[in-house]
């Protein structure tokens, strides 16, 4: 679990959220209430087909959002409409890390304590 801040459009503020780090999820997954609080118009967002942990197939609104995760501000894909704990997906986790290969092999550096 980690705290993240989801940033809204200018003038709409930010929302702090306690979310689960989930490497089985591809992207950041948030409840619709977060979109409403930050004035994100999910009705006009493209719908992304996803498969949830139960095996159900859904089409949910997806858009880019800015988040701060452990002190690092990122622009990431977010899907809205889940009815459970917000999930920080693998792409967001990797984006928050310095990750790669050097002449000694694989390396990573955790971004500010992730």
Describe the protein's topology.
Blueprint: E1 2-7, E2 14-22, E3 28-30, H1 32-37, E4 47-51, E5 57-69, E6 72-80, E7 87-89, H2 90-95, E8 98-102, E9 105-109
Average pLDDT confidence is 87
Q: What's the shape?
A: globular
Rg from Cα: 15 Å
**Extended strand count:** 9
The structure class reads: mainly beta
Order of helices and strands: EEEHEEEEHEE
Please describe the biggest sheet, giving its number of strands, its sense, and whether it closes into a barrel: 7 strands, mixed
Beta-strand percent range = over 45%
Any overview of this molecule?
The protein is built from 2 helices and 9 strands, in the order βββαββββαββ. The protein starts with a strand and ends in a 5-residue tail after the last strand. Helices cover 11% and strands 51% of the residues. The strands form 2 sheets. Strands 1, 2, 3, 4, 5, 6 and 7 form a 7-stranded mixed beta sheet that branches. The longest helix has 6 residues, at 32-37. The protein has 114 residues and is mainly β.
